[in-house]
Amino acid sequence: MSTFVLVPGAWHGGWVFDPVTPFLERSGHTVHALTLTGLRPDDDAATVASANLDTHADDVLALLDRTGVADATLVGHSYGGLVIAAAADRAGGRVSRVVHLDGYVPSDGDSCWSSTSEAYRQAFVAGAVDTGYAVRPPERDGRDPRRRPHPLASLLQTVRLTGEFAKVPRREFVYCSGWEGTPFTGLRNRLEADPQWLVHVLPTGHNAMYDDPEAVAKLLNG
Predict the structure, then answer these.
(1) How many other CB atoms sit within 10 Å of the CB of residue 166?
(2) Which of 24, 196, 212, 216 is most buried (most C-beta within 10 Å)?
(3) How far apart are CA 176 and CA 207, in angstroms?
(4) Pairing label, strands 134-135, 150-151
(5) HSE-CB for 6 with a 13 A CA cutoff
(6) Which CATH code fits 3-221?
(7) Over the stretch 95-135, which tens digit does the pLDDT of each residue have?
(8) Cα separation, 41 vs 61, whole angstroms
């Protein structure tokens, strides 16, 4: 059985994986769904302002330390793809699999800002005007009210990769094909041509955990 560490994307907490977790646990897996620093309900303004990509990678590493996991599967949704790449690079071989669930797959020196589309960069800027340090969630109908402003520094900071991330034995990317404006099409094309990556396609929206949690769990069980 596997130990899964589930890392949400921007504005979301570990609760975003609630529809998927029961399927994984019924299969006998251990599941840890993280809410990253700065996204927790009791985080104060100073915590949000200081949280960056390194902070979020450290959140993952701290969980591995607490639980003693030596062969974790890290799953990163959207922005969480950068987090799991940074964490896997620093985990000292304790990560056996990474799954980027419609999530960014960085190279050394990339950031969420540099990896995403111009439309999302504009949304980051517009969302940060209130505080200058946190990006408010996009105002879209039907979105979960638990979303919180996301630390701006984590979207801007570049990732530092030493080459250890590339040594993770299983590296997978899940392309969610059922939504307009995806910034991941070019990434899918690149990874499909890379024999070191396994690419899956789900015909869902970006939040596949909500659209088809059973399909997501089945893919993770693979």
Answers:
(1) 14
(2) 216
(3) 8
(4) antiparallel
(5) 24
(6) 3.40.50.1820
(7) 999 999 999 999 999 999 999 999 999 999 999 999 999 99
(8) 21
